[in-house]
Amino acid sequence: MTALPENWDRDNQGNPKRQASWGSRLDVEQIVWLTAVHEAAHVMVGWQHGMRVRRVWSREIPTEVGRSWTGCVSWDLSCTTSLGYAKMCAAGERAAARYVKELGLWEPEDIDLVRADHDRLSAVEGCGRFGFHIAVDGPAPHGTAGMRWVEVIEATDIDVDTLWADITALTRVLIEREDMTGQDVADLFHRNLPPQAVAEQGAGA
């Protein structure tokens, strides 16, 4: 088992990460899949929109009571659109919801099992820095570029459905390996990673 990354309990913006715990109606194997499919969806939808994955991991984490799982995706500086970034953020929750529904176990309270408030916050904050405003409640602000979060979800569902075969393929491998680099993902699909943004290429020279 690989060592946990530093700040494993925080997302890329430093926000606390949600953990999937054994104790729901899902069994251990299903919780493991739920966690991994969430991260795999971030990777594949982000890739679809030009984002270059650096690392993805999904694994059981130490807890004082019971058992819990979490994961994370980190990215190189990439070229994408604000909507592309927002859909990447939403993809984890949407793929997790699809997985539970495909199990035939979906109940209204399962929104709490799959919801990822930290990802929604990342989308709102990240897009907001570039002038693209996401309205969680109510309409998008007049006179600004943006959209409602429910519209982001609807657009993300289309991407998740289109990429579902690749998302599930990556999920299976991620469960086995627990930790993968961007190059590992590229090798899995026999594809090239999206290019790094020019600023990062220069910084690494």
Structure notes:
By secondary structure, this protein is of the alpha+beta class. Helices cover 49% and strands 15% of the residues. It has 8 helices and 6 strands. The chain has helices spanning 28-48, 82-103, 111-114, 117-128, 149-162, 164-177, 182-189, 198-203, and strands at residues 20-21, 53-61, 68-75, 132-135, 145-148, 179-181. The protein has a 4-stranded antiparallel sheet. It has a two-stranded parallel sheet with strand order 4-5. Strand 2 (53-61) and strand 3 (68-75) form a beta hairpin. Helix 1 (28-48) crosses helix 6 (164-177). The protein is globular. The two termini are 33 Å apart. The model is unreliable at 19-23 and 200-205 (pLDDT under 50).
List the helices and strands and how they pair.
Elements: E1 20-21, H1 28-48, E2 53-61, E3 68-75, H2 82-103, H3 111-114, H4 117-128, E4 132-135, E5 145-148, H5 149-162, H6 164-177, E6 179-181, H7 182-189, H8 198-203
Parallel strand pairs: 4-5
Antiparallel strand pairs: 1-3, 2-3, 2-6
Helix pairs in contact: 1-2, 1-6, 2-4, 2-5
Helix percent reads: 40-55%
Mind describing the biggest β-sheet? 4 strands, antiparallel
Cα-based radius of gyration, to the nearest Å:
17 Å
What percentage of amino acids are in beta strands?
5-15%
Which term fits the overall shape? globular
Order of neighbouring strands in the sheet with most strands = 1-3-2-6
Which stretches are low in confidence, meaning pLDDT under 50 for 5 or more residues running?
A: 19-23, 200-205
**Number of β-strand runs:** 6
Q: Report the span from N to C terminus.
A: 33 Å
Mean pLDDT: 83
Query: Which structural category fits the helices and strands?
Result: alpha+beta
SSE sequence, one letter per element: EHEEHHHEEHHEHH
Helical segment count: 8
